[in-house]
Design brief:
mainly beta, Jelly Rolls, 6-stranded antiparallel sheet, 5-stranded antiparallel sheet, globular
Amino acid sequence: MRYQQTVIPGVRTITPEPIDDIRGSFHEGLRADEFEREMGYPFAPRQINYSVSKRNTLRGIHGVRIPPGQAKYVTCVRGALRDIVVDLRIGSPAFGEHVTHVLDAGSGRSVYIPEGVCHGFLALTDDACISYVLSSTHVPGTQIDINPLDPDLALPWGFTEPPLLSEKDAGAPTVAEALSAGTLATWEEAHRRDHFVPR
């Protein structure tokens, strides 16, 4: 597996090296030992979710308050999607920056998102399915929702027609409103939680 650091500290892409033959292909999706060597701290899955979306569905931007905090290892397991990760850790050297990847089932590429960093995606195909391997179980009332169309973020979703949005996401606060409400984690809080060592 190939690990690549992005411009957001702690956010990595993980690209498998498939083994192909006449039957099809095989690849590893997550190897804890390699992951821990690469990241410098453990990632213990506590919950796995799947989300299925119609083409042009926009989900996000979502995160989880600290505590309880939640790191995510996301993979597109059917179809394709445009995945966007936004650093919203107050005090982070990359605060407000984003990284974009096209994730598709054929490549098997995954993105690791540490605690305090938020995430969303646009489905590029019908019946697109994303898998979330999570470091914590769901705790009602702890989700952070940020409006994915916040003009201050100006995220490059690339849709050519209005996307399908839930009422919750369409009415979510902007980053400025979330800052005022005190819902975002600090760089220090996230650092302490995941023992993150910048590389």
